[in-house]
Amino acid sequence: MSTSLLNDWADWAPRLLDGLGLSLKVTGLSLAIGLTLGLVLALWSSAKRLPVRLPAIVLVEVGRGMPALVMLQLIYFGLPDAGLTLETFPAVVVALSLTTAAYTSEIIRAGLRAVPSGQLEAASALGMSGGDTQRFVVIPQGLRIALPTLMGFAILIFQISALAYSVGLPELLSQAYSVGAATYRYLDVLVLAGLFYLAVTIPASWLVARLERRLNRHL
Amino acid sequence: MTTDPSAGQAILSLSNVRKEYAGHVAVDDVDLTVSAGEVVAIIGPSGSGKSTTLRCINLLEVPDSGTVSVLGRTLDTARGVKHAELMQLRRDVGMVFQSFNLFPHLTVLRNVSLPQERVLGRSRKEADERSMALLEQVGLASKASAYPPKCSGGQQQRVAIARALALDPKVMLFDEPTSALDPELGLEVLAVMRQLADKGMTMIVVTHEIHFATEVADRLVVMSDGRIIEQGDPKAVLADPQVERTRTFLSAIRDR
Amino acid sequence: MDHLVIILEAVPTTLAVTGASFAVGALVGLVLVLLRRTPWLLVRGLARLVVDVLRGIPPIVLLFIVFFGIGSGAIRLDPFQAAVIALGLVSAAHLSEVYRGSLLAVHRGQFEACQALGLGRRTTYARVIAPQAARVAVPGMVTWAISLLKDSALVSTIGVAEIMLVAGQDARSTGAGLLPFVLASAVYIALGTPLALLSRYLEDRLSIERSR
């Protein structure tokens, strides 16, 4: 690795760091909104009666079935046609939140279903109402079971945030691409961007693996 | 020993209770009347319907037909049970499970207090005071802030008993409460149950513990193939079973 | 109707990108998993690093590195080649993890039994371990194929004329706005559904076999 490359990287780093900050901001916001919606969808799609849960199931299957990039472009380029124009940043957050909601609702639903039936029986034998049973017994345990998978998904949505390049949000990949366009040094700057992504995703995946092992030990 | 069964008033009765699962009859035409303060032990081979019978009492399993009557409130299960009736029944009847079913994400104290707050509407302070008194009674006050997975099985089962008692039930159901425990841990649980019986609690216990049945129970009920085949004074039934099926079952568990 | 025809004409390209990348990934993934089971620590470590990097980097970034970074320099890659290389590498990393998980799912006793019977390493893997591992791996491979089908949309960003690209062009050129994107979504779902059903069927069958 030549010193000139390191010098260039040092020159580009602040710009890419700005981009990384925006990537993380988009990710965090989308996760906060998406997980809340995901929990709602998970409870809704767990309803006893099929007609009640059907709309939730359709929403989830559509959200999971379409590529995240299609969701993003549909919201940014398509919705203005239906009279709803969003700025770049909100459009990206809305798209990633919807994708997050669709995926995490399935993860959360699996977690809720994994709560042992004895827990429901105990709550029932104690005379707790259905709502109380969900709120105090099932949801806290179901979310705990789902936690490692949800964190794995959080890493994925951080990676997906790179798609925001396609609508011109100045996040990490966009910043790297425009440096590349200005200097014709695509490889060098894109590799640096890749390292920035890895600096977040690899430690995060170690954390998830550790958490998974810890939770498994306690089961 | 507790009150003479004939002296107490009937507090609970099942009549003509029947439960089927996909063509298999689990409980067939069971009648059972229990007096206040009585301790009834139900024994029988696995699949004999004893646990299902117990679960029909608090309607964890809703019988296909028959009536369940607790404290003079009679529920006809074939006609459907109203939510309010079900909630009242669950308050009157406490239950202890084979696998404890404590809430693993809550401390021992919260396990005992939460149902009091949500079901009886007690304040947190009231509930915690009652919980501590009961944990004291089962010998686990020192474990109040521990989480269930950190407790031994015997400790968890004693907490589960305290959790059920905290709602001031009039009848306690025990579904094989020591079957998941090592023998010495089972003894701690049986000691708590004996203490409870001595205080006059009405108890129905599905169990394999013949010793407990003879020493603590007022009546022994033997089930086979979903029916009650024999019942009476535990010592008498064990010494001289009247039905052949009881005899083979008893010799099978004695051989173990 | 024209909008739908335009999109349907791009379906073969989407399927070609997906299929070719999957094939590359299935083979390279096999190499990676074998490297991760060699006795040499350094090789194992390097293989693991490659897998972690390929899984940790967003696929679109890898795609740009391959197409703009490498493919426009000394080597010339057309968009389709770059797409297959990038998505093939991502697939290799994910599929190697699927393979690894399925090998771990084979009971240790099976290896021990083979040793006790005096079977060689190759016979052990080819005749005993691989057939058992494959049953576990197949549902995971189908799940990856579904992800890959959706990930293939991002090769539109380097100009491969697949579903996403033609939908976007159609939306801009005709001013039809929303419709092409809705149709594109429907086509992706229609393509993914048979795979999803297959994966569910295979997983159910596997869990029944295991519970026996």
Give your account of this protein's structure:
The complex is a heterotrimer of chains A (219), B (256) and C (212). With 219 residues, chain A is mainly α. Chain A is built from eight helices and no strands. Chain A is flat, with a radius of gyration of 21 Å. The N and C termini of chain A lie far apart (48 Å). By secondary structure, chain B is an alpha/beta fold. Chain B has a domain at 10-100 and 173-255: Rossmann fold. Chain B is built from nine helices and ten strands. Chain B has helices at 50-57, 83-92, 108-120, 124-137, 153-165, 183-198, 210-216, 234-239, 244-255; strands at residues 10-21, 24-35, 39-43, 65-70, 73-76, 93-96, 171-175, 202-206, 219-224, 227-232. Chain B has a six-stranded mixed beta sheet with strand order 6-7-8-3-9-10, sandwiched between helices. Chain B has a four-stranded antiparallel beta sheet with strand order 2-1-4-5, covered by helices on one side. The longest helix of chain B has 16 residues, at 183-198. With 212 residues, chain C is mainly α. Chain C is built from eight helices and no strands. Chain C has one domain (2-211): Orthogonal Bundle (MetI-like fold), CATH 1.10.3720.10. Chains in contact: A-B, A-C. Chains A and C meet through helix 2, helix 3, helix 7 and helix 8 of A and helix 2, helix 3, helix 7 and helix 8 of C.
Give the tags.
heterotrimer; B: 256 residues; alpha/beta; Rossmann fold; 6-stranded mixed beta sheet; 9 helices; 25% strand; globular; disordered N terminus; C: 212 residues; mainly alpha; MetI-like fold; 8 helices; flat
